[in-house]
Specification:
149 residues; mainly alpha; two-stranded parallel ribbon; two-stranded antiparallel sheet; 6 helices; 6 strands
Amino acid sequence: MQINSGDQISQVYRMNNDTSAVVSTHSSDTTKGQAADKLTLSEAGRNAGNKWQVIANQYDPTNISYNELTSMSFNLQESGLITPAEGLAMRAPPSRDFNPNEKYDTLALARQAVEFDNSLGATQDKSAQLRVRVLEVLETLHNSGKWGG
């Protein structure tokens, strides 16, 4: 399987934070050998993985200003790592009256939004699914960067 775009590497990150994986399958009893499928990343796929890491090391989603969040989402979108809709959802203001330079925990706010959707049973709503995706992106950045675990 060749991974050629940022969208594809994003899907791999969603499934597993490991950018290289080997998946083994066993053949049927009629053959004595084993078949193995190997996942290889194209140069574009490796570049996308590198872009995730660079962005993850630049921004801490648990301590970020709105201006920094805007810059981060633009970088993710420009790199093809998130869609325009995900970028827009990520840039939802933290409150009505806020200081764009004041730092806050956008990861905690994203978790609260998803928990609220879940409490309403709105998990199938398109907007709710978008908020889940934003939470996944923020968690990936936090866990991949120098800020997280």
